[in-house]
Amino acid sequence: MNFQQAERINRLGTETAFAVAARAQQFMASGGEVFPFHLGDMNLPTPEHIVQAAQKAIADGKTGYCPSAGIPELRHALAREINQSHGTHYEMENVAIQPGGKPVIAKFIQSVMNEGDEVLYPNPGYPIYESQIEYFGGVARPYSFLPGANGELYLDMERLEASITPKTKAVIVNDLHNPTGIEHSAGELEKLARLAVKHNLFVLADEAYFDIRYQGKSRSLASFPGMAERTVILYTFSKRFAMTGWRLGAAVGPKSLIEIISKLNVNNESCSCHFIQHAALAGLQQEPAASQQILEVLRRRRDLAVEMLSAVPGFFCPRPEATFYLFPEVSECMRRKGFEQYKDFAEDILVKTGVSVCTREHFGRVLPGEEKKYIRLAYSGIDIDRIEQGLTALIAYGK
Ligand code: PLP
Q1: Interstrand relation of 202-206 and 168-173 (parallel, antiparallel or unpaired)
Q2: Closest residue to atom 11 of ligand 1, CA basis
Q3: Which secondary-structure segment (H or E) carries 225?
Q4: CA-CA 20 to 30 A from 280: which of 194, 300, 389, 395?
Q5: Ligand 1 centre from 101 Cα, in Å?
Q6: Can the peptide bond before residue 179 be classed as cis, meaning omega within 30 degrees of 0?
Q7: What is the pLDDT of residues 177-222, one digit of tens each?
Q8: Which atom of ligand 1 is least distant from the CA of 236?
Q9: Distance (Å, rounded) from C-alpha 319 to C-alpha 322?
Q10: Using CA atoms, how far apart are residues 198 and 305, in angstroms rounded to an integer?
Q11: Using CA atoms, how far apart are residues 138 and 339, in angstroms rounded to an integer?
Q12: How far apart are CA 240 and CA 336, in angstroms?
């Protein structure tokens, strides 16, 4: 058969970071030692009481279909939990459980965006936004970040505002941001909220890293005036409870939109895994000790990694208070080593040090006028002694 794929598939993107993992594997297979800073995954175990709750739920027969929007106990518990951390007023009907946080992106876009509508999204950013906007026939309009006085990145609000047109339907905001690790200030969030209200935009607040923070308190766009009625929160159990492979998350937002998203659940997966929802419920009901322990491990890794990356000649590495990503600016090192292309630089680092990293290019198309160069290191999938070994080699490489 002469197979012709559907036309829309040509617009579907992917996570090109998987190619970095494949290259690291290949390097390892040829005898090289790899320090995996490219992984966005976690190498920490899921807390024991969550594992036990899953086993009990299986033994208790929670293995059949369950309601498409999720088991009521979990929807209820999550609404209460989010109200406490966000200062919102959600009820069970504001929550639709999902098989991971990621599906919320496509379901939000399908629910609010018509073909030809424009959606603003962060670039650099999680590559699935651009992919899904274009796949469903929308126009993906990037907004970006600018280096401040100390080289730290902040939201390019002017560009964001200038990108709004009568066709703009929604804006995607990933405060506590992958890949940069940056956090929007209260003033920036307030401005974003005012823009959304003024231009009547829907908002996807991707809060995948809301609970991965080492100091201070996360703020949600959904808690600003006029925002709860237009915002869908992407919630995930992946990071906070080290449950990336269990696949559980939720869409939290206005009841009318959550009803639509639940209808998409019926059409897509019927329901999220029944017994995993009981395990997640145990996660929410536990003492916070287990997630605190996860955070403590991550904090120690961050402190060491930032200290060592700051010692790499030609690197400038800010110290984010949230996420498990570091996004050092590496323009000077790249220039000194004679590289213009990100992929050549990353390959040189891999071959000479074993350190495997993603670059800015893995997080959306590089924008015109972008001069500074960045790479991304994740410390969620690498132990502290390996961080030390890998970054010792990187410091030597930079000299
Ligand atoms: N949003 C962002 C910014 C992410 O980095 C990720 C995962 O890395 C997700 C959403 C989705 O995570 P999950 O589907 O595991 O909940």
Answers
A1: parallel
A2: 102
A3: none
A4: 300
A5: 6
A6: yes
A7: 999 999 999 999 999 999 999 999 999 999 999 999 999 999 999 9
A8: 16
A9: 9
A10: 42
A11: 35
A12: 39
Q: What is the distance in A from the centroid of ligand 1 to the CA of 170?
A: 19
- H/E run at residue 48: helix 48-59
Q: Which atom of ligand 1 is nearest to the CA of 206?
A: 1
pTM value is 0.96
Neighbouring-strand partners of residue 359: 375
160 close to 195: Cβ distance less than 8 angstroms:
yes
Q: What is the mean pLDDT of residues 56-83?
A: 98
Q: In whole angstroms, give the CA distance from residue 356 to residue 370.
A: 23
Distance 44 CA to ligand 1 centre (A): 16
Residue 343 CA to residue 357 CA, distance in Å, equals 10
- And the tokens for 352? 């000479």
Strand, helix or coil at 158? Answer: helix
DSSP one-letter string for 300-363: HHHHHHHHHHHTSTT-B----SBSSEE--B-HHHHHHHT--SHHHHHHHHHHHH-EE-EEGGGG
Query: Which of 16, 206, 211 to mutate for ligand 1's pocket (most ligand atoms within 8 Å of CB)?
Result: 206
What is the residue with the minimal CA distance to atom 8 of ligand 1?
40
Q: Tell me the pLDDT tens digit for each residue of 277-330.
A: 999 999 999 867 888 999 999 999 999 999 999 999 999 999 999 999 999 999
* C-alpha distances in Å from residue 71, one per residue of 76, 104, 208, 343: 9, 18, 21, 45
